Amino acid sequence: MKLPAVAIAASFAGGIALGLWFSDRWSGMIASHLRLESAILVVVLAAGFALLRFGKIAIAATASLLAWAALGIFGVAIAQRPLPADHVINLVDSGRLDIHEPLQWHGTLGDEPTRMPWGWSYDVALSSVEYDSRVIATEGGLRMNYTPQPSDGPLPDLHAGDEISVLTQARLPQFYRDEGAFDRREYLAQQGIYLVATLRAPELMTRTGQASRSLSFAIAHVRRKLREKLDALFRESPQEAGILRAMLLGDRSFVDRAESADFQKTGVFHVLVVAGLHVGAFAAFLFWLGRKLKFSVGWTALITLAALFSYVAVIEQRPPVLRAALMAAIVILGGYFFRRLDLLNSAAVAALILLVARPLELRDSSFQLSFLAIGCIAGLGVPWMDRSVQPYVRALRGWRDVTRDAAHEPRAAQFRIDLRIILDWFSARLPAKVGVHASSTAVRGLAIFFRIVELLALTVVLQVGMLSVMAGDFHRVTLSAPIVNLFAVPLTGLIVPLGFVTLLCVFVFPMLARWIAYPLGLLSSELLHVVRWFAHFSRLSYRIPGPPRTLVALFFLSLFALAVFIRMTGPGFQKLAGSMVGLLTMCAVLIAVYPFSPTWSAGKLELSVLDVGQGDSLFLVFPKGHSLLIDGGGTLFHFSEAAERQGAGPGPDPGEDAVSPYLWSRGFKRIDVVALTHAHQDHLGGLFAILQNFHVGTLWIGREADSSALSRLESDARARGIPIVHELAGTTFAWGGVKGRFLWPEKAPDEEPSAAKNADSLVLHLRFGNRAMLLPGDAEEDAERQMLADDPESVLRSDVLKVGHHGSKNATSPEFLDAVHPVLAIISSGKDNPFGHPHPELLERLKKAHVRILRTDTNGAVHVLTDGKSLEISCFVACPEISGEIGSMQPNPPDGDQN
Fold first, then answer.
1. pTM of the model
2. Nearest of 706, 697, 701, 664 to residue 683 by alpha carbon
3. Are residues 707 and 575 in the same domain?
């Protein structure tokens, strides 16, 4: 077997995938059958050894691979063991700990306090908490943020390992309960963080014990010093400092959102993530330096490995860094033992080591992308280059030496002969010295040309090979990536070693470090300029839904087959490889174009009230496929461009993290109409991402408001050619049999727009057959009274009411509720929001009116589907108490022709 490590790693990964598949469908089944799985593993191993003893090598190899697959299932069982009984999550879930009030938490700082653009971040390994006059032992991680205020006192001087006590209100990390949305809670749990909190004042945190001496805490201190020194070197160039923090030290905290988006749009975000490119450049530089200093192969390998793993320890043991370091270590050790390692085998060994340590890493996107990239390079890029470009690259070595021609394959030998003839002809017509110099320059130029061809080929192979994962997980296609990487990869290859030399000189020769920092800053600035310039071409990067699973399977099958056939010799295999290229190209085009129709129910009206935290976002699909998105959610932060540049706002983006993924999960690329009820941040903030990510037909707004955020949204719409239409009370439309009518707001007085307010909210009434829906935005009692006065009660009558203003007590008055007379009320509010929404008075009001209630903070996204007669209701978090009562929901009588 030429690639034994690949077969073993594939079997182990297959076992993990099978274990995860079982666990997803039958929760806890794998973890609850550890003894059975252990017995199966022992039996398979015993059978394998017995077969090997009797010379049945092929069958024994199969048994060995089955054993590795069983080990993968076993690894999932161990990794998914329940959390300890005293874990903070179990304490909260069981009701033994109520975190809705500030509590005194005790623990140890797991890392140095981290400076952020908006303040400081602290990671605390919890040991106990004071609750109900008791001290409860607990474990788990707490991430605490602090934003300094002018009136605050100095922060305590804390370091990694210090024991601390802090009074703060902790909370579970926010995540959006919508189909396709990013699960931030799971993401933080993988880092050991289960609670988050905000420190209100420095006086609330005290040190109760000094750090003990340990290697990990010393490394954390070195990491903090390196960041501080780097910031000091580039104090006048914060953007370059942020980029270098990311590229050298793995800290992207100071790369602002706009810059990060530019790197994503151009397909070079990988240069901001310390991984294979950075570790490879660092290891190559160290190895080259060792050879230049005349160290032996052994000492060079030893020094390189020591420096490499010291670097990994300093920048934190994150999965991409560990993967790259393991790969580099395997290659260096192979070189030391004079072994020419197959890159696929090396990658498989690294993958196996990581999966044994962390089986659940298999489902992580970065793990998949890393090894998919290595697989594309080793399985497609390298074989192609060995057959096309590499013979000519090797032919340039000693090109003047005729005696070496015979050592090359015929085409390469002929290339050397032709090259000498051409260069001799040109040299003969130039002065002797000039001719020799010109010939050498021409050969160097050819060598550079071939390297550019290789780099371009590798980037194309990588972009095509990773297209499926990029489209499925990140919903982005970047056409400019191969060209941008021609600039970004060489620049990164210069920045990384020069950056490490600079950081080393900071401690030894500070004056020299300041001199080296100048070209380092220029290179970083040049990288930024290249990325920004290409990012301005918006058509070169676009967002798409994730491809269908059958297409993904066909894509990877053709990719694997091509990797197999390209390594084979013979015309038959070459024809098969050509066929696979055609099939792969077809799959890639289908993924990139996404010509598939979105998922919707023809002939029915659908309303989805999405979970966007404390905000609103509603998506409607009409019987003939028209789509309407009302609001995009937003954060509680006041929007300002200055705050955004500093990293303090607008904070999490529900438009990018919740609404867009939901729409992509349904296969939508276009939205016919986006409507903004009013210009408050919790309704408007997410719409910027929506305009960027989707083809929008029209933007509906109500009254104009004196709002910088609204002005920016309108400017974005105009820049994209999206018409803006003002909708006011009395405006009607009819889509696919659904009659829509705006009940509010009335036309504003002829005066300058005032600040945005709830009373400006668009209120939309929809009727389809015998069923009706009322969507009032944040309209409160004043607007409700005016609507009651302007329209007869029958116009307001609706089966489904999206409760106004997130369930505030100042909305949905008793008179308004009587007029609407809904059978189902849906409340959009954030879990544990600071406003107390929905208000107990409002909930009591709805219960007295015998209205069934669903809430996004408890049920997640709520979906209502109607054919004009019956109602079908479902939730992201199961709501059987409502779904089971669908048949009893009697329709409200139609109001006649309201148009």
1. 0.87
2. 701
3. no
